[in-house]
């Protein structure tokens, strides 16, 4: 992968408040790991887009009495499936075969903290969704200056959509809560930061640092 000229600063691409929402930036060691594994980066990216669409659909089925959530999740599912299609097409053009990869511990590591009874369950799922989208957005932005022109342009477009998804998830979490949830957000964000900075043996889009 080659650097593009005059690449915008990652911070300039990110939605306001996103870096403060995340409790740590992606470590430089992960960026180096990603650049050493361009095929795995795209394959797992495709899987992440598909999983994101699936999460949105599951919320559509479970929480039919939340009209705004239904609207936002319909939009999100469509966008994530479009992104999945775009990543698969890009992979085909580059001769990369799409295949199954085992999941990283990231999403499961966050889900284990989700409470079991509603409305707390829904609130936690939405906060976790916001964290995943925010981290994806931040990682796309961090990668852009190191990528070839085609992939950098694609990831730049994803920063905008993933940033909007982060904002939508967080807004829905606050609306679903009967009281302030800042402490809950801080708790889950701290767990997310732990997962991002812990050693991992297998590279994934949401893995920690190389062991």
Automatic annotation (TrEMBL):
The lineage of its organism: Bacteria, Pseudomonadati, Pseudomonadota, Gammaproteobacteria, Oceanospirillales. CDD domains: MiaE. The gene is miaE. This is tRNA hydroxylase. Pfam families: MiaE. Gene3D superfamilies: 1.20.1260.10.
């Amino acid at each position: 992968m080659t650097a593009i000229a005059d690449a915008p600063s990652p911070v300039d691409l990110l939605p306001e408040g996103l870096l403060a929402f995340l409790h740590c930036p992606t470590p430089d060691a992960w960026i180096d790991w990603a650049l050493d594994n361009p095929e795995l980066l795209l394959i797992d990216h495709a899987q992440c887009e598909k999983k994101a669409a699936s999460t949105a659909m599951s919320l559509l089925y479970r929480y039919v009495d939340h009209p705004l959530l239904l609207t936002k999740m319909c939009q999100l599912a469509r966008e994530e499936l479009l992104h999945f299609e775009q990543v698969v097409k890009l992979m085909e053009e580059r001769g990369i075969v799409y295949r199954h990869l085992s999941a990283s511990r990231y999403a499961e590591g966050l889900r284990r903290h989700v409470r079991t009874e509603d409305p707390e369950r829904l609130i936690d799922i939405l906060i976790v969704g916001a964290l995943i989208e925010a981290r994806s957005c931040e990682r796309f932005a961090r990668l852009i200056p190191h990528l070839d022109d085609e992939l950098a342009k694609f990831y730049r477009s994803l920063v905008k959509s993933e940033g909007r998804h982060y904002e939508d998830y967080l807004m829905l979490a606050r609306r679903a809560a009967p009281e302030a949830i800042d402490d809950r957000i801080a708790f889950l964000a701290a767990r997310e930061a732990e997962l991002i900075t812990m050693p991992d043996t297998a590279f994934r889009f949401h893995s920690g640092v190389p062991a």
